[in-house]
Amino acid sequence: MAEVVEFRVPTGSAQTLLVWGLEPEPGLEHSLFSAFSRFGLLYSVRAHRNAAVAGPGYYAIVKFYSAGDASRAQRACNGQRLFQKSPLKVCVCTKQKGFQQRALALNSNKCQELANHYLGFNGWSSRIITLQNVSGFDDENGDQAETMQKRSVKYLCAVEVTLPSHGVCTRGVALSEADVEHPEDPLEFVTASRRVQKLAVGKALSHAFQKILLVVLENGKVAVEYNSTPEELTDSLTEEELKGLVQVNELSLEHFDLEEEVLSDLSFDDDLPGLEMPPN
């Protein structure tokens, strides 16, 4: 049976394994990751100390992107010792009735990791169509004294993702903003600007990937489906039309919940992997 994998944080119970009977050891999460990543790409591995009533030891939550991968891992690892002396118990998490978790969009790093796994490093590419400073538009009619005391840096970015083998091309648009407490300090202002630029690029890349569905077939091959709403305009505009939409209120930005981008993972000196900056 084919399985659909989205560029979103996995929340389904079928994608989540509960592992218990773990013995305390240094690097426990690393050992778990090494053991379970053999069955497919992992979203996360989290180990926790047992509650006092459960006795000594640890349990872990292992999240896969694919329910099929999680099922294979459960069957292969349940009752096995793997990396410790005593056997582990592994089960697929049962669905919690009455509790529905909202699926967050993956951040840009996770999107690239997922695309590389299923499409290959050469199976997709991305480029920045435009990255524009829109910091001043909200301040034109604002209080000038307040603006001088606290300056906001705001960037609008549009990114295009192409899957040449599947004939799919999609775009993402995002806005990022940060306040600069001491705008008179040029170093602080430049540093904040570069951080906001990279955050805008990352959000736009994630937005573009949200329109792509990966269909994993039983034979291991991957098909791609384009999934967008009728209200989505960015994919139908020409590049010049997209670049011309500088005013934020002229562009209908899709609001979606995004897994937090980790700014510390974004180098100030290097562009995001796989992204081509537009020529000046």
Mind explaining what this structure looks like?
- This protein is α+β, with helices and mostly antiparallel strands and 280 residues long.
- Helices cover 24% and strands 28% of the residues.
- It is built from 6 helices and 11 strands.
- The strands form 3 sheets. The chain has a 4-stranded antiparallel sheet with strand order 3-4-2-5, covered by helices on one side. Strands 8-7-6-11 form a 4-stranded mixed sheet.
- The radius of gyration is 22 Å and the shape is flat.
- About 8% of the residues have low confidence.
Keywords, please?
alpha+beta, four-stranded antiparallel beta sheet, 28% strand, 280 residues
Detail the topology: elements first, then pairings.
Elements: E1 3-6, E2 16-22, H1 28-36, E3 42-49, E4 58-64, H2 67-77, E5 89-92, H3 108-119, E6 125-133, H4 144-149, E7 151-163, E8 168-180, H5 186-209, E9 212-216, E10 222-226, H6 239-244, E11 275-276
Parallel strand pairs: 6-11
Antiparallel strand pairs: 1-9, 2-4, 2-5, 3-4, 6-7, 7-8, 9-10
Question: Distance N terminus to C terminus?
Answer: 48 Å
Main sheet properties:
4 strands, antiparallel
Total strand segments:
11
Q: What would you report as the Rg, rounded to the nearest angstrom?
A: 22 Å
Mean pLDDT: 82
The secondary-structure class comes to alpha+beta
Give the strand order of the largest sheet, numbering strands 1, 2, ... along the chain: 3-4-2-5
Number of helices: 6
Structure summary:
The protein is an alpha+beta fold and about 280 residues long. The protein has six helices and eleven strands.
